[in-house]
Amino acid sequence: MAQKPQTLDGKVALVSGSSKGIGAAVAIELASRGALVVTNYPFASLKEEAESTLAKIRATGGSHATEAYAIESDLATLEGPKHLVEEAVRQLSGRKIDILVNNAGRASPQLLKDVTVDQWEFQVHLNGRGTLLTTQAVLPHLAKPSRIVNLSSGGARQAYPGTSIYNGTKSMIESFTRCWAVELGREYECTVNAVAPGATNTDAFNALTGDTRESLEPMLAMTPAASRIGETEEIAYAVAFFCEERARWITGQVLQVNGGTLMA
């Protein structure tokens, strides 16, 4: 495999929720472009998957790929975001963080009439509060210039039954993105953008849909680019673009990466 141009050579990237799925693909892509990537997984039960992702990162041949490491920290807890950042900075020996990718998130579909407080907290504590506290903890350690990329979802703009809580958290992420772009632009020389994936081939998405052609048909019918769902690598390319120097004049934006899926 030909090595990619090392356009992120020497940059330090922290990617939350990156033991598998979209987060892992993002970590691998950033490493392939030369970044030193700090990955994150929430529970000891995911350590094996986190180690597998690290092996894939090291195999990219990126200029700092062999320096990648993983930190266990549950960002749904009050202490998790601060622990993640403090441990990352400790292992980085005080080096600044150039790139933060807020990817960690959860979905628990449930019709409104059946939503419980536990299901609300399950999603809001990680998707919303976790993103806010992780970003807040990173601020004293941000390099200048720097990049923050938040993971939203097509659900922030497209309604599906049973997704009001999850979609609401992603609308929150998009609002964070616009507000933080204004707040952090001058003081931190930081751009803040978001990527909103559509239906993407991950274990989590397939578990929700049953991974059958019949269950996907309504989404595929609204996707003009191809009769398929997206792949994690395609989302990672978009995230990596926002991290590049060439994207320095783009901030406060939400990029839909969904094959052109039409809004309902």
Automatic annotation (TrEMBL):
Keywords: NADP, Oxidoreductase. One of its GO terms (molecular function) is oxidoreductase activity, acting on CH-OH group of donors. SUPFAM superfamilies: NAD(P)-binding Rossmann-fold domains. InterPro entries: NAD(P)-bd_dom_sf, SDR_fam. It holds the Pfam family adh_short_C2. Belongs to the short-chain dehydrogenases/reductases (SDR) family. This is 3-oxoacyl-[acyl-carrier protein] reductase. It comes from Cladophialophora yegresii CBS 114405.
